Amino acid sequence: MPEAQKSSPATQAAAARLLLIDDDRQLTASLERLLRLEGLAADSVHTAQEGEAAALSHPYALIVLDVMLPGGDGRVLLRKLRARTDVPIIMLTARGDDHDRILGLEAGADDYLPKPFQVRELIARIRAVLKRQGARSNATHSTTVGDLEIQPVTRRILQHGIEVQLTGAEFDILMLLVQSGGKAVSRDTLAEACLGRSIGPFDRSVDNHISNLRKKLGATTDAGIERIRSLRGTGYIYTGVETTA
Questions:
Q1: At which of 73, 99, 134 does a domain end?
Q2: What's the whole-model pTM score?
């Protein structure tokens, strides 16, 4: 299989073609029809092998991926795809299975939705992710924040000159924290701005994205300062650095 090319968020948004990887053919057929009414095209495949081949052969704007697939585990496929492409991925998981959702976010999913769900809710999630990916910063330069170089236009993060691979949601959360100038940002604000939806009291998606950022960037900066601090009952704060353009 040829090496997949990483497409930019702008290219993905312009393509506006989605890939649905789910063995429920009735569901994918219904989704395809509704997405067409929303001005979005979608291809459907129904096994893990078909999903991997399709995802790596076309620059899809977004992938909807079920955890349970014939011929493979959707979480394993997620890890394979995330190693080759930064395309946004929404995971579909079993109702109430927090373990699947946490593993999915840790492996690089941008969002998740438990089954059964309202199709309109999934389409709203898709719209929110595509909107985030298509939004471009007005900045035309990179910004240095401690040991990080942030490139808003290309949505790249460099640490000591080496690119750190972040998902779209992780990048957006990091940017919002950094742009808050040392002030705390609530979980609700992070969810609304970076996930495109509100969260309930037991929804740990923001916390899992923060955990991923700590793992990828390091829990502390080069100066030994805690990078992202949790404030009980308040939210999160990016601490101990000064931002310079």
A1: 134
A2: 0.59
